[in-house]
């Protein structure tokens, strides 16, 4: 088989809008994995909300999490690589969030921190629950024992459009991207799904032409353009479709399964 490493985005790609992984998609992935192809989930999610899907599919190997900021071994949960942020560089962003009542959280590879975690609304807790996350109280920078890999703000699309426009005028120490309609992420300047996938492919001795990637959003652009075959979902924005080599059906129509059947079986 030409493709030795296949990277799959999770939300909006592998999963339906109901956050479900279909039996048909799972069986197709298992069939290709049995032929020796490695699969890696390449997602904005944390390891705790990504590894369960790998285990559900009977896969080991690696996951690329936090939009490329951390790569983790599925079996041992060892951190293979992470792009650590300068926490003090986040102070002005946090001040902005406080002044404009914008919700934010701070992520290490395995934990998520929120100011006032104990007082979060049920709506906020339900949102985190969808991603299998339990927020912890954000300590001071001096008391953070693990490197920070991602800073995320959440809100309505119109609210985040303004945040993105405002922050785009700032001198950027970080990589800023829209990882979904309701999310903006800040990461280390060099962190991206494409950069992490490139590092993993090199570690596995697999050239780019033998890598396939499937995704649906702006945070997937770097991995779609790195891979020898980049496939965009039908539910992708036009810019993402334009950057891909091929387009498959939507996440609600088993687009991942159909792409894998077409290009790998």
UniProtKB/TrEMBL annotation:
Cellular component GO terms held in the UniProt record: cytosol
One Pfam family recorded for the sequence: Hydrolase_3
GO MF term (any one): phosphatase activity
PROSITE patterns from the UniProt entry: COF_1 (PS01228)
Domain of life: Bacteria
NCBIfam families, sorted: Cof-subfamily (TIGR00099), HAD-SF-IIB (TIGR01484)
Protein name: HAD family phosphatase
Annotated organism of origin: Paenibacillus anaericanus
